[in-house]
Amino acid sequence: MRLLDIGNERRLRRSIEKVDAFAYEVIQRRREEMRVKQASAAARSDILTAFMRAKDEEGGEKYSDEFLKDVCVNFILAGRDTSSVALAWFFWLLQRNAEVEEKILQEVKGILKDRGAAERGNMAAAMWYSGQRR
Length: 134
Known about the structure:
Elements: H1 7-36, H2 38-42, H3 47-53, H4 65-95, H5 98-114, H6 128-132
């Protein structure tokens, strides 16, 4: 079906094109940001910026946009999978330990009671029990 570009193959090709276009757009915006604001871009410490500053060990050339796109897509996909697996394990472990679940619920209820709706967005910073359980 790939040769005919129909059905699932067409949908897959279009989806890949959208993801690639998004990654290339991010790369171009970052490149422009680094060109215009070299001082503030230098302060960035993310993976894309690090790869954009680095050079290929074999040829000594800057990495191509295609290589940078592949790195971006790999990290997006890896982050999605690891987050979902981590959450699945968290909830499985939580349901097996009622005492911990109760302490977390009490902590969340206390934060929600003490804060207004506008302040609820950063609950993680106020959670003392979760932070102690490392």
